[in-house]
Design goal:
The chain is mainly alpha-helical. It has seven helices and two strands. Strand 1 and strand 2 form a beta hairpin. The longest helix has 15 residues. The model has no long low-confidence stretch (mean pLDDT 88).
Length: 207
């Protein structure tokens, strides 16, 4: 969870032209840890809420926050938690409209704590569920899923034509088959520094 916090803190700081700084109020986040300022910075923007006895994951509202909360920086991030962080990040720079609770996922009903964020993310094509019709929000998110959601939240789209023509020049991974892995192009989009022109149909890499 600390690594996820660092991702969003860096994205926000870059977009706002700020330096990441902030003091965390979570009981289990020491000021001496590398992630302390990242977590404190996200708290200022209400991108993270943490845990308490009355609510799970990142569902705690401002009013529900007790004096002592935990963040669990070393715990894994669930799919629902990461989507909620991404929607909150996105909402700092864009209008996030409430959408009807999704009925696509058989395991996400109107009472699920992250239903609004999952519904919104689905409505703007950030994510898909599984073939059996579930979302599995409480499962740990994978590295490939993280890259894909972050790309969508930052309006980044891989230029497949450029990638296919320049594969030998790009940073690649021995365990990734670009043309067969479902997130192959998204991973290369994130792993290669490039200049691109963003337009309505996606992104065109120029270098």
């Amino acid at each position: 969870r600390a690594e996820a916090a660092a991702i969003f803190a860096r994205l926000i700081a870059e977009a706002k032209g700020e330096t990441v700084s902030g003091k965390s109020s979570f009981a289990d986040v020491s000021s001496k840890e590398w992630y302390s300022s990242y977590i404190g910075y996200l708290e200022k923007y209400n991108v993270i809420n943490g845990y308490n006895a009355g609510c799970m994951g990142e569902q705690c509202s401002e009013a529900e926050r007790p004096a002592t909360r935990t963040f669990k920086p070393d715990a894994s991030v669930t799919r629902a938690e990461f989507v909620s962080m991404a929607v909150r990040y996105y909402g700092l720079f864009n209008e996030v409209k409430n959408v009807a609770n999704t009925t696509k996922y058989t395991d996400v009903d109107s009472s699920y704590w992250a239903v609004k964020d999952i519904s919104y993310a689905k409505s703007i094509d950030w994510l898909n569920g599984y073939a059996d019709g579930t979302f599995k929000g409480d499962n740990n998110i994978t590295r490939a899923e993280v890259v894909t959601v972050v790309n969508r939240a930052t309006n980044r789209t891989a230029d497949k034509e450029y990638i296919n023509a320049n594969l030998t020049k790009l940073n690649q991974f021995t365990d990734l088959k670009t043309n067969t892995h479902w997130a192959g192009y998204d991973i290369l989009e994130a792993a290669n520094e490039h200049l691109g022109i963003v337009h309505a149909d996606g992104e065109t890499w120029v270098k």
